[in-house]
Structure formats: structure tokens, C-alpha cells
């Protein structure tokens, strides 16, 4: 039978895995909406407002899902992890409060204007509300990642009678891993949105939608991904170097390095075996891991055996890291493949359309894999070097945790299926609706323009 520690960890992992899907969309989608609104504001071309009106519905749906799942997740600090707030509540509490006060209230208030205020408020107010929602999503990510980064690389505090007390809030906020983790997450959100927008726009085109809005959205997403995907790889490398400095045991697990060695190989694939402390069926490139992480072919990397009893479980970190990197490389390849085609031929072929549709939620998979590397890689600590996970868990009966875990998972599976299905239903419905000339507030609407369809061509 599972013990309460394992069940609590699995339950929290399930909750945060479900929750993170939606902020990953809203963080970057808010800024994309702001871009669409600015383009409409300056050009008055209705295609930008049509793109805005479709994607603002996706934003609203994602925001609602994120709020609901976030509230559920926060309950578990008290029900499953009482030792967490008892030990570091003096730091975690204010940071979570700052997120609510500076971000959530701003998003929730301005979202109403975004959704319903286009013809009810002046144009500059509506544009300003869109900016504030985008800014609010970023500020929300800022404070949440401050806390998460502090748990990885704690700084600016002192322990008094087993309780953490803040001694330097600037050191807490700008702890050693925060700049890299924050940048990495914002770029991950941007890539997730690029491929979601490209995927749903490709779906609309595949269904025979020859209106301009999905084509404009698809081009915007692809060209953005062409720039963001390589940048994410660069920032990820910097993040890895920072992790090597502060959490070498996590790097050792990511790379599958058991013995401290100079000129460590890059393990492309293997089956880590913690019992024998070896990698089975390993495919390696000699000395490449040392070159990447130390910028020297003979650089020394610490192995997992240096951290006996204080390193994370190897297999989940090892595999998750390769999933994240693999999907990231795929995103770079697809973005440039489609982008170059658009620049040269102005339209995508059917294989590219199918590829984009199949990768609509690739960003989710990469983000989850990255978060598993981050969070599992911190084990056996909840706060690195300060609070062990086993010391923070609840003492309630494991059967209670198992019951709530089953209920949570049942609800999350249903909600996720409904959410994804709703997105595609929205896209399908957008294919069939008529376009309108969207005039500025205060002016009569122009005539309806029924778009002719040409199903023989899949344009972009």
C-alpha cells in the first residue's frame, strides 16, 4: 500500500501538472492579444480585430480553468503539506499574497473590459485593459517563480527555532536561479502559445476556412516561433549552467552521470539503473557533456555517487529532460520549416498543415517535462538544503489522500478533455460564421461579407 508521503507527492504533482497548463497559455497569449489590438488600433484593418476576438475567448476559457485549478492546488498546502507553511510560511505567505494583490486582481478586473468593452469604452481604454491583463499575467508568473526559484536556491533568510525568517527581501526575490527560471518559463509560454495558435489556425484552414484571420494568426505564430525557439535553447543552456553551480546533483541526474569524471560523455539515451548505479544500453557522445556544461572537453562533472542519499530519483529526471529537449528541437525544426516555406511560397502544403495541427499542444508536453525536471530534481528536499519533503508531509491517513487523489484525477481528466474539445469546436464554428466589417466604436457596422471557400487549396 502507498504511504502518505508518496500519495501526497503524487497528488500535488497531478494538481500542479493540470494547473500549469493554463497559465502557460495565458502568460504569452495576453501579449499576443495586445499585439493584435495594437495592429488593429493603428491600421483599422478588421482582420486584426477578428483574430483578437477569436483568441480572447480562448484566453478567457484558459484563465477560468487556471483560476479554478490554482485554488484547488493552494488548499493542499494546508491539507497535505502543513510542515511547508509552518517552516517557511514567513516567506511563502507574503510572496503568494503579492501575486494576488499585484496580478490576479488586475487580470480579473481588466478581463471584463477586454471581453465586453470593445463597443462600450473608448478605444484607448480597451487597448489599455488588454495591456494590463497581459502585464498582470506576467506579474503573476513573476511572483510564483520567485517562490519556486527560492525553494530551489534559497537566499536572504535565517532560521530561528526551525522557522525561516526573511532577512533580505531583495535577495529572496532575486535569488540565484530566478532570472534564468523566469526567462525560461516566459519563453516556454511563448512557444506553447505559438504552436497552439498555429495549430488551431491550421485546423481552421484545413476545414476550409479561407478568411484572412486564421492566416494572419498562423503567420504571426510561425514567425514568432522562428525567433523564440532558438532563443529558448540559448536561455536553457544558461539555466543549465546555473543549475550546475547551485544544484549539481540535479545535473548529474539529468545527464545520467554516476561517477565523478573528467571529460564526461553526453548520454543521448540509456536506461538508468539505480540499483547497480549504471546506465544500461547507453548511447553516448564522448566528452560532450563536459564541453556543454564546463566549456572544456576535460571539464570535471560530479557524479550521483557524490550525493548518496541526497540526490533525486534518476529515471524520471533523466527521461523528462530528454523529452523536453527533444520537443524543443522539434519545435525549432518545424518553425523554420514552415517559416521558410511561408517566406518563399506564401502558403503551406498539406503535410505542414497536418504537422502543425498535431503539434498544437506540444508546448504543454515540453513544459510539463521541464517542470518534472525542476521539481523532481529538487528531491529529497522541498526547500533545497532547508526542508526535506518527508518532514513537511501531513500525518493524516493515507486512505484519505488516496480518495481525494482519485477524485481530483477524475475531475481533471474530464475537464481537460472538455477544454481541448471546446477549443476545436470554437475553431470549427469559426469556419462557418460570416465575417463582419468591424468599425471603430460609435460608427455603424459595415456590410456582412460572406467569405468564399476554396477547399482545393490549403493556403496560409
Give a verbal description of the structure.
The chain is mostly helical and 460 residues long. It folds into two domains: 4-260 and 302-449, no CATH class; 261-301, no CATH class. The chain has 13 helices and ten strands. The protein has helices at residues 4-43, 46-79, 82-116, 123-152, 169-173, 178-206, 212-246, 248-255, 288-294, 314-345, 350-358, 362-376, 398-432, and strands at 157-160, 163-166, 261-262, 266-273, 278-285, 300-301, 381-383, 387-388, 435-436, 448-449. The strands form five sheets. It has a two-stranded antiparallel ribbon. The protein has a two-stranded antiparallel ribbon with strand order 3-6. Helix 2 runs antiparallel to helix 3 and helix 7 packs across helix 8. The protein is globular and about 60 Å long. The termini are far apart.
Question: Would you count the extended β strands for me?
Answer: 10
Task: Please tally the helical runs, counting DSSP H or I stretches of 4 or more residues.
Answer: 13
Q: Classify the helix fraction into a percent range.
A: 55-70%
Structural class: mainly alpha
Residue windows where pLDDT falls under 50 for at least 5 positions = 436-460
How do the SSEs run, as a string of H and E?
Answer: HHHHEEHHHHEEEHEHHHEEHEE
- Name the beta content range: 5-15%
Distance between the termini: 54 Å
Mean pLDDT: 87
What count of domains describes the coordinates? 2
Q: Tell me the major beta sheet.
A: 2 strands, antiparallel
**Global Rg:** 24 Å
In one word, what is the shape?
A: globular
The largest sheet has its strands arranged as 1-2
Amino acid at each position: 500500500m502507498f504511504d502518505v508521503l508518496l500519495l501526497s507527492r503524487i497528488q500535488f504533482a497531478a494538481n500542479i501538472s493540470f494547473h500549469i497548463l493554463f497559465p502557460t497559455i495565458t502568460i504569452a497569449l495576453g501579449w499576443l492579444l495586445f499585439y493584435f489590438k495594437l495592429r488593429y488600433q493603428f491600421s483599422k484593418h478588421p482582420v486584426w480585430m477578428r483574430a483578437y476576438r477569436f483568441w480572447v475567448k480562448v484566453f478567457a476559457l484558459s484563465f477560468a480553468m487556471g483560476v479554478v485549478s490554482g485554488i484547488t492546488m493552494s488548499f493542499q498546502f494546508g491539507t497535505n503539506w502543513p510542515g511547508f507553511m509552518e517552516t517557511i510560511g514567513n516567506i511563502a505567505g507574503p510572496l503568494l499574497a503579492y501575486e494576488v494583490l499585484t496580478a490576479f486582481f488586475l487580470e480579473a478586473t481588466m478581463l471584463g473590459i477586454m471581453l465586453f468593452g470593445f463597443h462600450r469604452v473608448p478605444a484607448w481604454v480597451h487597448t489599455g485593459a488588454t495591456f494590463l491583463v497581459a502585464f498582470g499575467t506576467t506579474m503573476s508568473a513573476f511572483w510564483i517563480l520567485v517562490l519556486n526559484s527560492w525553494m530551489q536556491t534559497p537566499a536572504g533568510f535565517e532560521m530561528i527555532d526551525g522557522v525561516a525568517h526573511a532577512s533580505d527581501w531583495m535577495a529572496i526575490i532575486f535569488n540565484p536561479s530566478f532570472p534564468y527560471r523566469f526567462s525560461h518559463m516566459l519563453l516556454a509560454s511563448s512557444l506553447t502559445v505559438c504552436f497552439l495558435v498555429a495549430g488551431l489556425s491550421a485546423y481552421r484552414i484545413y476545414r476550409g476556412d479561407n478568411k484572412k484571420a486564421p492566416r494572419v494568426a498562423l503567420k504571426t505564430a510561425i514567425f514568432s516561433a522562428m525567433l523564440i525557439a532558438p532563443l529558448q535553447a540559448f536561455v536553457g543552456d544558461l539555466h543549465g549552467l546555473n543549475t550546475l553551480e547551485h544544484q549539481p546533483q540535479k545535473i548529474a541526474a539529468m545527464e545520467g552521470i554516476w561517477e565523478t569524471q573528467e571529460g564526461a560523455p553526453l548520454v543521448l539515451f540509456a536506461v538508468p539503473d539505480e540499483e547497480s548505479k549504471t546506465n544500461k544500453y547507453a548511447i553516448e557522445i564522448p566528452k560532450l557533456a563536459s564541453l556543454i556544461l564546463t566549456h572544456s572537453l576535460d571539464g570535471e562533472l560530479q557524479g550521483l555517487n557524490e550525493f548518496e542519499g541526497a540526490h533525486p530519483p534518476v529515471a524520471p529526471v533523466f527521461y523528462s529532460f530528454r523529452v523536453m529537449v527533444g520537443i524543443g528541437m522539434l519545435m525549432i525544426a518545424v518553425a523554420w520549416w514552415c517559416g521558410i516555406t511561408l517566406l518563399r511560397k506564401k502558403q503551406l502544403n498539406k503535410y505542414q498543415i497536418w504537422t502543425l495541427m498535431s503539434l498544437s499542444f506540444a508546448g504543454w508536453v515540453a513544459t510539463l517535462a521541464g517542470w518534472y525536471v525542476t521539481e523532481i530534481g529538487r528531491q529529497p528536499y522541498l526547500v533545497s538544503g532547508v526542508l526535506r519533503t518527508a518532514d513537511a508531509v501531513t500525518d493524516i491517513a493515507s486512505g484519505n489522500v488516496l480518495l481525494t487523489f482519485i477524485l481530483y484525477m477524475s475531475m481533471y481528466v474530464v475537464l481537460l478533455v472538455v477544454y481541448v474539445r471546446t477549443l476545436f469546436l470554437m475553431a470549427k464554428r469559426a469556419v462557418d460564421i460570416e465575417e463582419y466589417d468591424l468599425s471603430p466604436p460609435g460608427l455603424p457596422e459595415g456590410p456582412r461579407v460572406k467569405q468564399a471557400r476554396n477547399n482545393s487549396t490549403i493556403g496560409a
